[in-house]
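ARCHIVE CARD
Drawer: 12
Card no.: 0347
Subject: one protein chain, sequence and derived structure
Cross-reference: see card 0346
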Amino acid sequence: MRVATVAAHAAADVHLGHQAHLNAVAVYRDMGESSRESMVWSSLGVTLARLHELAEAIATHERARALAQRARDPHSEAIACNNLGLALREGGRPCDAVTAHRRAVVLMTRLRDRRGLATACDNLGLALRAVGEFDQAEVAHRTAIRRYREVADPHGEATATNNLGTALRRAGKLNAAITAHRHAVAQRRWLRDRAREGVAWVNLGLDLWQSRRADDARRCWAEAAAAFRDADNSALLVHLERLSDHADGT
Protein backbone atom coordinates (compact mmCIF):
# COMPACT_ATOMS: atom_id res chain seq x y z
CA MET A 1 0.00 0.00 0.00
CA ARG A 2 2.83 2.39 0.91
CA VAL A 3 4.65 1.70 -2.39
CA ALA A 4 1.46 2.34 -4.33
CA THR A 5 0.94 5.61 -2.44
CA VAL A 6 4.49 6.80 -3.17
CA ALA A 7 4.07 5.91 -6.85
CA ALA A 8 0.78 7.79 -6.98
CA HIS A 9 2.39 10.89 -5.44
CA ALA A 10 5.30 10.65 -7.90
CA ALA A 11 2.90 10.44 -10.85
CA ALA A 12 0.99 13.45 -9.52
CA ASP A 13 4.24 15.44 -9.17
CA VAL A 14 5.18 14.60 -12.77
CA HIS A 15 1.77 15.71 -14.02
CA LEU A 16 1.99 18.98 -12.08
CA GLY A 17 5.50 19.61 -13.36
CA HIS A 18 4.40 18.99 -16.94
CA GLN A 19 1.46 21.35 -16.50
CA ALA A 20 3.68 24.03 -14.95
CA HIS A 21 5.94 23.90 -18.01
CA LEU A 22 2.96 24.21 -20.34
CA ASN A 23 1.59 27.14 -18.34
CA ALA A 24 4.95 28.90 -18.64
CA VAL A 25 5.02 28.20 -22.38
CA ALA A 26 1.61 29.83 -22.75
CA VAL A 27 2.71 32.93 -20.82
CA TYR A 28 5.91 33.43 -22.83
CA ARG A 29 4.10 32.76 -26.09
CA ASP A 30 1.51 35.46 -25.28
CA MET A 31 4.39 37.82 -24.48
CA GLY A 32 6.12 37.00 -27.77
CA GLU A 33 9.22 35.81 -25.83
CA SER A 34 10.43 33.05 -28.15
CA SER A 35 13.80 32.69 -26.44
CA ARG A 36 12.27 32.13 -23.02
CA GLU A 37 9.64 29.84 -24.48
CA SER A 38 12.46 27.82 -26.06
CA MET A 39 14.19 27.42 -22.69
CA VAL A 40 10.97 26.16 -21.09
CA TRP A 41 10.54 23.58 -23.85
CA SER A 42 14.17 22.51 -23.30
CA SER A 43 13.53 22.07 -19.59
CA LEU A 44 10.41 20.05 -20.26
CA GLY A 45 12.31 17.87 -22.75
CA VAL A 46 14.94 17.07 -20.13
CA THR A 47 12.20 16.03 -17.71
CA LEU A 48 10.57 13.81 -20.33
CA ALA A 49 13.90 12.15 -21.17
CA ARG A 50 14.46 11.35 -17.48
CA LEU A 51 11.06 9.66 -17.50
CA HIS A 52 12.15 7.69 -20.62
CA GLU A 53 9.44 9.37 -22.71
CA LEU A 54 12.04 9.68 -25.45
CA ALA A 55 9.86 10.23 -28.52
CA GLU A 56 8.07 13.09 -26.78
CA ALA A 57 11.36 14.43 -25.40
CA ILE A 58 12.90 14.50 -28.89
CA ALA A 59 9.89 16.33 -30.32
CA THR A 60 10.01 18.80 -27.44
CA HIS A 61 13.71 19.55 -27.93
CA GLU A 62 13.15 19.98 -31.66
CA ARG A 63 10.46 22.55 -30.87
CA ALA A 64 12.86 24.32 -28.50
CA ARG A 65 15.54 24.42 -31.20
CA ALA A 66 13.13 25.82 -33.80
CA LEU A 67 11.97 28.57 -31.44
CA ALA A 68 15.55 29.53 -30.61
CA GLN A 69 16.41 29.70 -34.31
CA ARG A 70 13.35 31.87 -34.94
CA ALA A 71 14.42 34.18 -32.12
CA ARG A 72 18.01 34.22 -33.43
CA ASP A 73 19.20 33.14 -30.00
CA PRO A 74 22.30 30.97 -30.55
CA HIS A 75 22.81 30.20 -26.87
CA SER A 76 19.31 28.78 -26.45
CA GLU A 77 19.73 26.93 -29.73
CA ALA A 78 22.99 25.38 -28.51
CA ILE A 79 21.33 24.20 -25.30
CA ALA A 80 18.41 22.75 -27.26
CA CYS A 81 20.78 20.97 -29.67
CA ASN A 82 22.78 19.51 -26.83
CA ASN A 83 19.67 18.21 -25.04
CA LEU A 84 18.26 16.94 -28.34
CA GLY A 85 21.45 15.00 -29.00
CA LEU A 86 21.28 13.30 -25.61
CA ALA A 87 17.67 12.24 -26.20
CA LEU A 88 18.42 11.04 -29.73
CA ARG A 89 21.34 8.89 -28.55
CA GLU A 90 19.31 7.37 -25.75
CA GLY A 91 16.46 6.84 -28.21
CA GLY A 92 18.65 4.75 -30.52
CA ARG A 93 19.42 7.44 -33.11
CA PRO A 94 23.16 8.03 -32.59
CA CYS A 95 23.86 9.38 -36.08
CA ASP A 96 21.26 12.11 -35.59
CA ALA A 97 22.72 12.72 -32.12
CA VAL A 98 26.16 13.36 -33.66
CA THR A 99 24.62 15.96 -35.98
CA ALA A 100 22.87 17.71 -33.08
CA HIS A 101 25.98 17.77 -30.90
CA ARG A 102 28.17 19.01 -33.76
CA ARG A 103 25.79 21.93 -34.14
CA ALA A 104 26.04 22.62 -30.40
CA VAL A 105 29.85 22.61 -30.66
CA VAL A 106 29.75 25.09 -33.56
CA LEU A 107 27.42 27.44 -31.68
CA MET A 108 29.31 27.30 -28.39
CA THR A 109 32.57 27.96 -30.27
CA ARG A 110 31.07 31.05 -31.92
CA LEU A 111 29.77 32.24 -28.54
CA ARG A 112 33.19 31.64 -26.93
CA ASP A 113 31.37 29.80 -24.14
CA ARG A 114 34.16 27.52 -22.93
CA ARG A 115 32.09 25.69 -20.32
CA GLY A 116 29.27 25.14 -22.80
CA LEU A 117 31.80 24.03 -25.40
CA ALA A 118 33.31 21.53 -22.95
CA THR A 119 29.89 19.97 -22.33
CA ALA A 120 29.05 19.90 -26.03
CA CYS A 121 32.38 18.24 -26.90
CA ASP A 122 32.02 15.61 -24.19
CA ASN A 123 28.49 14.75 -25.34
CA LEU A 124 29.67 14.68 -28.96
CA GLY A 125 32.29 12.15 -27.90
CA LEU A 126 29.59 9.92 -26.40
CA ALA A 127 27.57 10.07 -29.62
CA LEU A 128 30.63 9.37 -31.78
CA ARG A 129 31.44 6.38 -29.60
CA ALA A 130 27.90 5.11 -30.16
CA VAL A 131 28.45 5.10 -33.95
CA GLY A 132 31.88 3.47 -33.66
CA GLU A 133 33.95 6.56 -34.46
CA PHE A 134 36.33 5.97 -31.56
CA ASP A 135 39.25 8.11 -32.77
CA GLN A 136 36.96 11.10 -33.26
CA ALA A 137 35.39 10.41 -29.87
CA GLU A 138 38.84 10.50 -28.29
CA VAL A 139 39.52 13.92 -29.84
CA ALA A 140 36.17 15.24 -28.61
CA HIS A 141 36.72 14.03 -25.04
CA ARG A 142 40.28 15.39 -24.93
CA THR A 143 38.96 18.77 -26.12
CA ALA A 144 36.34 18.66 -23.37
CA ILE A 145 39.00 17.94 -20.76
CA ARG A 146 41.06 20.95 -21.87
CA ARG A 147 38.06 23.27 -21.82
CA TYR A 148 36.95 22.10 -18.38
CA ARG A 149 40.47 22.78 -17.08
CA GLU A 150 40.37 26.28 -18.55
CA VAL A 151 37.21 27.10 -16.58
CA ALA A 152 38.41 25.27 -13.43
CA ASP A 153 35.59 22.71 -13.45
CA PRO A 154 37.06 19.56 -11.83
CA HIS A 155 33.73 17.71 -11.85
CA GLY A 156 33.34 18.18 -15.60
CA GLU A 157 36.98 17.27 -16.16
CA ALA A 158 36.56 14.05 -14.16
CA THR A 159 33.47 13.10 -16.18
CA ALA A 160 35.23 13.77 -19.48
CA THR A 161 38.30 11.81 -18.32
CA ASN A 162 36.14 8.81 -17.46
CA ASN A 163 34.40 9.04 -20.84
CA LEU A 164 37.77 9.31 -22.58
CA GLY A 165 38.92 6.10 -20.92
CA THR A 166 35.87 4.24 -22.14
CA ALA A 167 36.35 5.50 -25.71
CA LEU A 168 39.99 4.39 -25.59
CA ARG A 169 38.99 0.93 -24.38
CA ARG A 170 36.44 0.61 -27.17
CA ALA A 171 39.20 1.57 -29.62
CA GLY A 172 41.42 -1.19 -28.24
CA LYS A 173 43.89 1.27 -26.68
CA LEU A 174 43.91 -0.53 -23.36
CA ASN A 175 47.04 0.98 -21.79
CA ALA A 176 45.79 4.49 -22.51
CA ALA A 177 42.35 3.56 -21.19
CA ILE A 178 43.88 2.29 -17.95
CA THR A 179 45.79 5.56 -17.54
CA ALA A 180 42.66 7.65 -18.15
CA HIS A 181 40.49 5.68 -15.75
CA ARG A 182 43.20 5.80 -13.06
CA HIS A 183 43.13 9.57 -13.42
CA ALA A 184 39.33 9.52 -13.17
CA VAL A 185 39.52 7.47 -9.95
CA ALA A 186 42.00 9.93 -8.44
CA GLN A 187 39.92 12.94 -9.51
CA ARG A 188 36.72 11.54 -8.01
CA ARG A 189 38.52 10.59 -4.81
CA TRP A 190 39.88 14.14 -4.50
CA LEU A 191 36.34 15.45 -5.06
CA ARG A 192 35.00 13.02 -2.43
CA ASP A 193 32.42 11.76 -4.90
CA ARG A 194 32.26 8.14 -3.84
CA ALA A 195 29.49 7.03 -6.23
CA ARG A 196 31.27 8.34 -9.32
CA GLU A 197 34.60 7.13 -7.98
CA GLY A 198 33.01 3.69 -7.92
CA VAL A 199 31.99 4.06 -11.56
CA ALA A 200 35.58 4.92 -12.48
CA TRP A 201 36.80 1.84 -10.57
CA VAL A 202 34.32 -0.31 -12.53
CA ASN A 203 35.64 1.05 -15.82
CA LEU A 204 39.26 0.58 -14.75
CA GLY A 205 38.39 -3.00 -13.88
CA LEU A 206 36.94 -3.53 -17.36
CA ASP A 207 40.14 -2.17 -18.92
CA LEU A 208 42.22 -4.58 -16.85
CA TRP A 209 39.89 -7.50 -17.54
CA GLN A 210 40.26 -6.97 -21.28
CA SER A 211 44.02 -6.75 -20.74
CA ARG A 212 43.83 -10.27 -19.24
CA ARG A 213 44.64 -9.00 -15.76
CA ALA A 214 41.73 -10.67 -14.02
CA ASP A 215 43.04 -10.41 -10.44
CA ASP A 216 43.69 -6.67 -10.83
CA ALA A 217 40.23 -6.24 -12.33
CA ARG A 218 38.58 -7.97 -9.38
CA ARG A 219 40.50 -5.73 -6.97
CA CYS A 220 39.13 -2.70 -8.81
CA TRP A 221 35.60 -4.05 -8.58
CA ALA A 222 36.07 -4.63 -4.85
CA GLU A 223 37.05 -0.96 -4.55
CA ALA A 224 33.96 -0.04 -6.58
CA ALA A 225 31.72 -2.09 -4.29
CA ALA A 226 33.14 -0.33 -1.24
CA ALA A 227 32.56 3.07 -2.88
CA PHE A 228 28.95 2.24 -3.77
CA ARG A 229 28.30 1.06 -0.20
CA ASP A 230 29.76 4.27 1.20
CA ALA A 231 27.52 6.24 -1.17
CA ASP A 232 24.52 4.06 -0.21
CA ASN A 233 23.87 3.42 -3.89
CA SER A 234 22.25 -0.01 -4.06
CA ALA A 235 21.39 0.27 -7.77
CA LEU A 236 25.03 0.63 -8.80
CA LEU A 237 26.00 -2.14 -6.40
CA VAL A 238 23.51 -4.52 -8.02
CA HIS A 239 24.81 -3.57 -11.47
CA LEU A 240 28.38 -4.28 -10.33
CA GLU A 241 27.41 -7.67 -8.91
CA ARG A 242 25.83 -8.64 -12.22
CA LEU A 243 28.90 -7.49 -14.11
CA SER A 244 31.20 -9.47 -11.82
CA ASP A 245 29.03 -12.59 -12.10
CA HIS A 246 29.07 -12.28 -15.90
CA ALA A 247 32.86 -11.89 -15.92
CA ASP A 248 33.29 -14.95 -13.71
CA GLY A 249 31.09 -16.93 -16.07
CA THR A 250 33.15 -16.13 -19.17
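Annotation on reverse: Residues 1-16 have pLDDT under 50 and may be disordered. The CA atoms of residues 140 and 235 lie 30 Å apart.
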